[in-house]
Design brief:
Strand order of the largest sheet: 2-1-3-4-5
Helix content: 40-55%
Strand content: 5-15%
Mean pLDDT: 86
Largest sheet: 5 strands, mixed
Shape: elongated
């Protein structure tokens, strides 16, 4: 392996131990191992973000298993694609997967095809659901905001007497809606 070798180990909770993963990664002669104790469902993982900032073309990232990188197929594919785009090799020890081999590249193509298929099915089901709802007379989208309450909220805001919290409580208009209305009317 050429370049720098990074190991990445993660457990989901603070009470879990990283020892088993660290033992496996140390056997791989990693130059540096980044660890974190946090759920894989969070997109913002500080050590994974740090790893992404550190990698350079020709480097290698080794994980004990794909489940350490992400919980969903989409997240995993996005990460693998990120590494590929940065010319970084990814190795998963448990799955015996290596993106630099023909077998690994084939598996990535299959993963990506399934991920696209899954996205297409979701879009199709959403369209069918909206069509079905319209056929029963239902319209989608958010309910319209009461124009009188928006005007009242704007007057209260411009009076500079009340806090945003007080205005939202009095009118039922959210801060975001109030700000959007103020912005749109200033342009």
């Amino acid at each position: 392996m050429s370049g720098y070798i990074y190991g990445y180990a993660r457990v989901s909770t603070r009470s879990q131990e990283l020892d088993r993963q660290l033992d496996l990664l140390n056997e791989q002669d990693c130059n540096e191992i980044l660890t974190e104790k946090m759920t894989g469902t969070k997109a913002d993982r500080p050590q994974l973000n740090r790893l992404k900032d550190k990698i350079r073309p020709g480097d290698t990232v080794i994980v004990e298993s794909f489940s350490r990188l992400g919980r969903s197929t989409k997240d995993l594919i996005d990460l693998v694609t990120y590494f590929e785009e940065h010319q970084v090799k990814l190795v998963s020890l448990k799955e015996n997967f290596d993106t630099s081999t023909p077998h690994g590249r084939l598996m990535m193509t299959v993963f990506q095809a399934f991920s696209q298929f899954e996205r297409d099915l979701i879009v199709e089901r959403t369209k069918e659901g909206l069509k079905s709802a319209r056929a029963r007379g239902r319209k989608g989208g958010r309910p319209r905001v009461n124009q009188k309450e928006i005007e009242r909220a704007v007057k209260l805001y411009e009076s500079q007497i009340y806090s945003l919290k007080e205005i939202t409580e009095m009118t039922g208009i959210s801060k975001a809606t109030l700000y959007r209305y103020l912005k749109d009317n200033r342009e």
